[in-house]
Amino acid sequence: MSEQNTTPAAQMQAPDADALTHEAERVERQTAIKNAPVVIDARGVGKRYEMHRHRSMLLQDTAKIAFSKVEKNYFWALRDVNFQIRKGESVALIGPNGAGKSTLLSLIAKTVCPTEGKIDVRGRVSALLELGAGFHPYFTGRENIFINGIVMGLTRAQIEARMPEIIAFSELEPFIDEPIQNYSSGMLARLGFSVAASVDPEILIVDEALSVGDAAFQEKSFQKIQEFKQQGCTILFVTHSLDLVTKFCDRALLIAQGQVLESGPSEEICESYKVRMEAGTLQGARSPHETVLMPFWKRAVAMGVLAAGLGVVVATGIHFVLGNTAGMEKPAAAKRFEQGQKASP
């Protein structure tokens, strides 16, 4: 009787073998990552863009400089960003729209340059930042595979050898020799990811581009990414799916208003993100907008140029008026001739 009562309890308290195996693999992976070299190192990175950048007529620009107190307005997409990513890590960048996540990926992919700071990237990078990036709309899918492959560092022989695999993965064989201007956004995503996955990257950067594909291709793509992860590829992932972050990524960076607010295990950062969103405290330490005041010497020079220009205009007008008036008067010789004609009988 007692044996029947204790047996179920013992079974309930028995540890789950799958859970133990998963936990052991997780601990082993974390230990390996801690000892791995740093492949992405960002130190004080910032990227700013000039707002309302417009060039008009010279006189109008000079007037703006002379009478405006503001010289330039800037928007800092990223400011004072510091982090390190080690080889083999899977890191998610999470945050609201406009936080600077895609800008950070572009800096890592070297498609844009930082305004300040430095970011070191060690390894072959394959980036899928946006649909059809680098594709020519008038070229066929096959021709664009060659173009993108060469840009990513593959030789023509390597591209030709991998061409059947790329086409098969994209599932676009019936349309591969058609101009990609006739492709849908989902077809572009298939082609772009297939090329990016064919270069055996050491660092794979994936933005939200895969979200437009159908469910079957999304699952296929994530399985491919899982293969890269198991092979020790470093993966940077931007997504708004927190479930995918907790399931796939080792670590997450929470970005808002161009700053990294938190960095840590994906589960903790995702939970913090939810709490901040509900409380309305998802803000950076400083405003991303910056205004540069006009120096006094610039205003003084501009005013001097305007005064000199106005003086030239006035002098030219006076000369023109006097020239026309003098031209209407008859010469003195003509007047004497007319007086002589009147005096003669």
Keywords:
6-stranded mixed sheet; 345 residues; 49% helix; alpha/beta; 4-stranded antiparallel sheet; Rossmann fold; elongated
Helix-strand sequence: HHEHEEHEEHHHEHEHEEHEHH
Helix content estimate? 40-55%
* Chain oligomer state: single chain
CATH architecture term of the domain at 34-124 and 201-293:
3-Layer(aba) Sandwich
Rough outline: elongated
Number of strands: 10
The CATH superfamily label of the domain at 34-124 and 201-293 reads P-loop containing nucleotide triphosphate hydrolases
> Whole-number radius of gyration?
34 Å
Largest beta-sheet characterization: 6 strands, mixed
Tally of contiguous helical segments? 12
Q: Order of strands across the widest beta sheet?
A: 5-6-7-3-8-9
As for the CATH topology of the domain at 34-124 and 201-293, it is Rossmann fold
Can you tell me the CATH class of the domain at 34-124 and 201-293? Alpha Beta
Beta percentage is: 15-25%
Mean pLDDT comes to: 80
SSE class: alpha/beta
Terminal-residue CA separation:
164 Å
Low-confidence stretches: none
